[in-house]
């Protein structure tokens, strides 16, 4: 039986990192509970103190097919290279220079939203189509491929 999954990222600023990943994935911020116009209103009604209202955030696939991505505040910063990372399929069906041009355009767009460019790997057919490694605003690495 296949299971639904949620991807969880530990971070320092859940709201900001959720906004970045919503942009990167084409997702949207998760709606507040029914009956509330905003998360601020919902958290106020739940009695969550202001200093804890950015302890968590989430983004969801607008089509409902992809996993929810949850962001939770943790006290410690990222310390080492990721053991798990996301690959964003930014150039499906493209090869060679057309592929790398599409990846470069997406890398530039995400850098304008706070990503950091780390390195580019050139195509090496037949097994490697080429990809670009970026880091999100908190240093979590991911690939555009």
Outline of this structure?
The protein is an alpha/beta fold. The protein has helices at 14-25, 39-45, 96-111, and strands at residues 6-11, 28-29, 56-60, 68-73, 86-88, 116-121, 131-135, 141-144.
Structure write-up:
The chain has helices at residues 14-25, 39-45, 96-111, and strands at 6-11, 28-29, 56-60, 68-73, 86-88, 116-121, 131-135, 141-144. The model has no long low-confidence stretch (mean pLDDT 94). The longest helix is centred in the last third of the chain and has 16 residues, at 96-111. With 145 residues, it is of the alpha/beta class. It has two domains: 6-73, 2-Layer Sandwich (Signal recognition particle alu RNA binding heterodimer, srp9/1); 86-144, no CATH class. The strands form two sheets. It has a four-stranded mixed beta sheet with strand order 1-4-3-2, with helices on one face. Strands 5-8-7-6 form a four-stranded mixed beta sheet, with helices on one face.
Salient structural properties:
Signal recognition particle alu RNA binding heterodimer, srp9/1; 4-stranded mixed sheet; single chain; 24% helix; alpha/beta; 145 residues; elongated
